[in-house]
Amino acid sequence: MLVKSIIDQDCDYFLSKASGFSRNGQFEAALRTIELVAHTYYHTSHLYDSLDINRTLSNTLDTLNLVAVDEALDAQYILFVDYYGLDNRGLTEQYLRGILDSGLKLVYLHLNWERGFLTSNIYTRLIEANAEILGVPKHNSLLKKLAMVTNFIRQYKPQNVFFHTSPWDTISPAIAAILPAAVKFQINITDHAYWIGSQYYDFILNFRKLGAAISVCHRGVSREKQLLIPMYPIIPEARYKDESLADDIKDKIVIFSGGNTYKVSVEGNSYFDVLATILKKYNNVLFIYIGGGDHKPIKKFISNNNFEKKVIYLGERDDFFDIMKLSDIYFGTYPIGGGLMSLYAASAALPFLSLVQGTKHKIKFYELMKRKPKFECLFESKDECIAEFERLITETAYRKRRAIDFTKVAINEKEFNRKIRLLLGMDFMESTILIDEAESPDTELFSVKQRYHEKKFIQKYYLIPLKHLGLRLLLIDRTRFFKAGYHLVARLLSRLK
């Protein structure tokens, strides 16, 4: 079993190696090893921030002697740094639309460019807006990426920078260091897990208060840096492509649920108890689950209850929204809720209900919305949830009223864009978050993800260094790499006994 002390020992080992690489001028190896540790912290979910990794990253960037942009910055240019560049991944499209709506000039920097990006909705929108685009090839070395990025930044000297990055990205903190006088906004898409470089950004843009509370209480980021901009869903353009499914669900009441399966992967989960009760009682009800991850919990639920004709598991689907629109009720994941999926449900005009672990989690869920629904949709007990399901199934008029009300709870694109314009005008009054001194977020929910990884992740955990450091590090310093590999294999063997 993986425990915090073991992970910390492994990460301390690699951080010491990163410091050694940096002192010896092997900066590629140093940055890659730092990314390895950040990658490990993210996947094992046992902390939100690390002074040691931040210090090692800062020392490495200082040793690199990055030359800061000290000329006057251009307020007409906004730089958007995007690690992923994927449609419907994180909040890229929402923020790009908001920035473009401001009328300022957009400079888009894609840190992991691949040819497939040319067919994305993001690329199409950037071309239509005449944005300046730099795609940094995904497989370039980090130092080569940094050189390309530096030249690009010096060409435009942007006054404002938005970072939409990964939890382990070391290039974005380097960009922030190059632009000390710019206003740097970090879009907190990974608010529930570890991410690197919290000290490099001027403001943290949170889509819910929970993210701000975690940053203040567990990352040591000041309250003054926390801003709140609720998200809205971008409706995917992928079109429904499975005509046979329409026949399967004809004349049925369809319950839809979705998200990565770790959100429901807990032994004795009440989520499945509620579904089993409903599916056994009503012959005209079907359940559809869409989402990636380990499919075993869903498959086990099907086989244990003989639900082969009652449950349809579709895995990842780019046409999920169209399938959602064919459904009748949205059931939120539990014990880890899916905030964005609930907003998609609002856009699809589906009545929503979910189990929650107490009043505090109700409050956190409603923070995603501009107003609380008129009808209660979050239930602390299985019996309450089952009773609401039964009413939604048997009372068509009530189901329609619930659906209409839920369409009004989410912020829309126009409201989101107005908040971005206020940000760019340095008007933070509307987005300021008040966090009580004694407020510390309840992180019990996220321990579910940690336990899931401890159970399923131990062998993959020891493959992270080999996968993440890659052949480049092997070629940079073969001896050190094999010593590190031997160290990890020895640990793996000892812990699998």
Please, could you describe this protein's structure?
The chain has a seven-stranded parallel β-sheet, sandwiched between helices. The chain has a six-stranded parallel β-sheet with strand order 10-9-8-11-12-13, sandwiched between helices. The protein starts with a helix and ends with a helix. Helix 1 (4-23) runs antiparallel to helix 2 (27-44), helix 4 crosses helix 17 and helix 10 runs parallel beside helix 15. The chain is α/β, with parallel strands linked by helices and 497 residues long. It folds into two domains: 1-232 and 412-497, Glycogen Phosphorylase B (Rossmann fold, 3-Layer(aba) Sandwich); 243-410, Rossmann fold, CATH 3.40.50.2000. The chain is globular, with a radius of gyration of 24 Å. Strand 2 (105-113), helix 5 (121-128) and strand 3 (132-137) form a beta-alpha-beta unit. Helix content is 48%, strand content 14%. It has helices spanning 4-23, 27-44, 51-63, 92-101, 121-128, 142-156, 171-178, 209-218, 243-249, 270-281, 296-305, 320-325, 339-347, 359-366, 382-394, 396-406, 413-424, 444-456, 458-461, 464-476, 478-496; strands at residues 74-82, 105-113, 132-137, 158-164, 183-187, 203-206, 226-228, 253-258, 285-290, 311-315, 329-331, 352-355, 378-379.
